[in-house]
Amino acid sequence: MVQMPIIALDFPDRVYAEQFLNKFQGEQLFVKVGMELFYKEGASFINWLKSQGHYIFLDLKLHDIPNTVYSAMKVMACLGVDMVNVHAAGGSKMMEYALKGLEEGTSEGVDRPKLIAVTQLTSTSEEQMQSEQMIDHPLKDSVKHYAKLAFEVGLDGVVCSALEAGEISEATNKTFLKVTPGIRMAGDNSHDQSRIVTPSDARKLGSTHIVVGRSITQADNPLHAYERVKFEWGLK
Ligand SMILES: O=C(O)c1cc(=O)[nH]c(=O)n1[C@@H]1O[C@H](COP(=O)(O)O)[C@@H](O)[C@H]1O
């Protein structure tokens, strides 16, 4: 799986998204399409991104009963994206069904999209998790627990903060994907994120992929910001 930074295309519609992508002069990117853009533009935008040669993480964070997630994943597999996700809090049976749906929906000869599970959102702090989710453990333990569940079910990896990547590697293995949002350059605004890490620290801590949104999409010069993130992440 390519290791370029994943750019979160958090835009209201394809006009904004295409204006943004035009700044990259045809460079092949790894982009993330989330709920906002997908609910607005649907599969046709995914097809267009594919026709432009971009790698795609379709971030819809499924979380429902196992059968519903199974059926949704079967349909999502037809989109031919590279990565999709669920919430680990849906449970191991839901994750198992998600994987089954994805496998059954993927055409022969085509690579199945990677399936990863969100552990604890990077916007969640330990205090919030303990008081609101009533989890009486350190946040790291909750993240590690969800990662182990996802690993045992056969998922390809998790979404977590880079702060937890090392412990997840120890509890699973090095190739298990640690896709880490909450990435900020030193001194940048953290916005609604709680567990933030710089691109270079994410590399040192063991992230396999970083997800970067506003630090690039809202920069005065997005191309320059992307180059800086890539450089810090260790890619030219
Ligand atoms: O699944 C995700 O992509 C995700 C999980 C998570 O725990 N935290 C998180 O921020 N994200 C996504 O990653 C992106 C981060 O955006 P920025 O905070 O602008 O860099 C957003 O599109 C979020 O939806």
UniProtKB/TrEMBL annotation:
Residues that hold substrate according to the record: 10, 32, 59-68, 122, 184, 193, 213-214
Keywords recorded for this protein, A-Z: Decarboxylase, Lyase, Pyrimidine biosynthesis
Pathway: Pyrimidine metabolism; UMP biosynthesis via de novo pathway; UMP from orotate: step 2/2
Catalytic residues identified in the record: 59, 61, 64
Enzyme class: lyase
Keyword Lyase: yes
Coiled-coil ranges per UniProt: none
GO-annotated molecular function: orotidine-5'-phosphate decarboxylase activity
All residue ranges annotated as the Orotidine 5'-phosphate decarboxylase domain in the record: 4-229
GO cellular component: cytosol
InterPro entries according to UniProt: Aldolase_TIM, OMPdecase, OMPdecase_AS, OMPdecase_bac, OMPdeCOase_dom, RibuloseP-bd_barrel
EC number: 4.1.1.23
Biological processes, Gene Ontology terms: 'de novo' pyrimidine nucleobase biosynthetic process; 'de novo' UMP biosynthetic process
PROSITE patterns: OMPDECASE
Pfam families to which the protein is assigned, alphabetical: OMPdecase (PF00215)
Catalyzed reaction equations: orotidine 5'-phosphate + H(+) = UMP + CO2
TM ranges: none
Highest taxon of source: Bacteria
Record HAMAP family: OMPdecase_type1_B (MF_01200_B)
Functional description taken from the UniProt entry: Catalyzes the decarboxylation of orotidine 5'-monophosphate (OMP) to uridine 5'-monophosphate (UMP).
Binding partners and assembly: Homodimer.
Family: Belongs to the OMP decarboxylase family. Type 1 subfamily.
Name the record gives this protein: Orotidine 5'-phosphate decarboxylase
Organism: Lederbergia citrisecunda
Gene, per the UniProt record: pyrF
